[in-house]
Specification:
It is built from no helices and 11 strands. It is an all-beta fold and 124 residues long. It is globular and about 40 Å long.
Length: 124
């Protein structure tokens, strides 16, 4: 029912910036909480950021707060993750996720729909 497609990943130097996009299907995009998660090689998937359906409330992992910004454009059915001051520790596959009403907004298991992921590599 909900299809998510990420884009915008790539290779960037330490201190650089990237903006990830997640395009969602359907006409009820504003009804979904949207999240970004990431998974580095050999590590568990971890929460990065989330935004409420209206875009009025945002949440961030401590590791990215002050550097990353999540936003959404409901008219375009798209959520963004602006990543600034990138570090090698940010290297991971980044996934977009959606759920109508997550019980726990920071947990991957509370999001029903997922995109395919986009790779971000930060060179040192």
């Amino acid at each position: 029912q909900v299809h998510l497609v990420e884009s915008g990943g790539g290779l960037v130097q330490t201190g650089g910036s990237l903006r990830l996009s997640c395009a969602a299907s359907g006409r009820t995009f504003s009804g979904y909480t949207m999240g970004w998660f990431r998974q580095a090689p050999g590590k568990d998937r971890e929460f990065v950021a989330a935004v409420s359906g209206s875009g009025s409330t945002t949440y961030y992992a401590d590791s990215v707060k002050g550097r990353f910004t999540i936003s959404r454009d409901n008219a375009k059915n798209t959520v963004y993750l602006q990543m600034n001051s990138l570090k090698p520790e940010d290297t991971a596959d980044y996934y977009c996720a959606a759920d109508i009403n997550p019980y726990y907004i920071y947990g991957e298991y509370y999001y029903r729909y997922w995109g395919q992921g986009t790779q971000v590599t930060v060179s040192s």
